[in-house]
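For the sake of transparency, this paper describes our internal protein records without simplification. The record that follows is passed on verbatim for readers who wish to inspect the format:
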Amino acid sequence: MAGSGSLPTGFGELEVLAVGTVLLVEALAGLCLNSLTILSFCKTPELRTPTHLLVLSLALADTGISLNALVAATSSLLRRWPYGSDGCQAHGFQGFIASLASICSSAAIAWGRYHHYCTRRQLAWNTAISLVICVWLSSVFWAALPLLGWGHYDYEPLGTCCTLDYSRVDRNFTSFLFTMAFFNFFLPLFITLVSYRLMEQKLRKTGHLQVPALIAKTVPTINAINYALGSEMVHRGIWQCLSLQRSELDRAR
């Protein structure tokens, strides 16, 4: 880790500045876009549906990723990690929770869309709430394991943010990495691909083909654009929030 006022070993001034700038732009963009999604859900009654609850979960997870990136950006621009060893563990823990929740929320959204379009039934509130609770409890569980000794958080090569220590090759970390990857990457990816594939086959017969983004599930900006800001209903909700217009339900009351 870089000392106070010194560059991280093996990195130049321009490299550190570039990393910090990119992280700062991504963090601010993710915070702004996902905050609009969260605000529109809270302020617009029409958006408070079980399906949009899954999108809200994704927006919250990606907001967590953006906050984590903001801390990393600040440290990169300072050219050092100012929060100590405990801060490193907390930073890695929080970032890992948000990342896992983002991936699993994307899979939950894929399943929810499959359920809606292929069964022609609305997603029930108890089902959506159960999915969200499972996503976040699972994310906290897997992110806590490195703090308990299975896996390990450490500084990234730049020395200005923290994540899983992928440089370790011992049996402890290898077993954690493969087990975690199966349940939190390959399984959600399988659910996402199968759900969209079945939905594609169903909608192709009706002539209403939808092509979702299947890549970059942990990028907050892309998720916000794809799942939230790409929705016409969310567009209306955001416009109502920004322009202080009342929704139809509010006017009816």
